[in-house]
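[09:14] KT: can someone run the structure on this one? pasting the chain below
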Amino acid sequence: MPTGESPFECAAREVGEEIGLKIIAERDLHLFAMIAEKAYEGHSHWLMFLFRCQVPINALPPTIDEGRFGFYSRAAIERLPLPETDRQALWPIWDRHRHGFVALRADCHPSQKLDVVVEQLIPGLPPS
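[09:31] RB: done, structure tokens below
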């Protein structure tokens, strides 16, 4: 945020830093979701933009300080220690809306059940 980069600029930079792909055009990334999380971990508020990288990966990227890139089955992902919003919102969004766009809000306050509300949905068609 201090640099004033847009969500697209941030995603393009992160893809370059984390997996070594150069994102040069808007068509290289598809914004498929925006999630506003209230009271994440009981106190923080997040605005998350989820992009699908449409540039093929030809080889596994090298390990970086943030971790090692890998491909995982859905069953393996289910065994990872993920935040509950990822389980209840992120993966269902990916499954249903990765070709379109969805805006959600999630109330994550720990004293209540996670509440995820769809605020806008624009269906998309898979690429032919």
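[09:33] KT: thanks! The first helix runs from residue 7 to 19.
[09:34] RB: yep, looked fine to me
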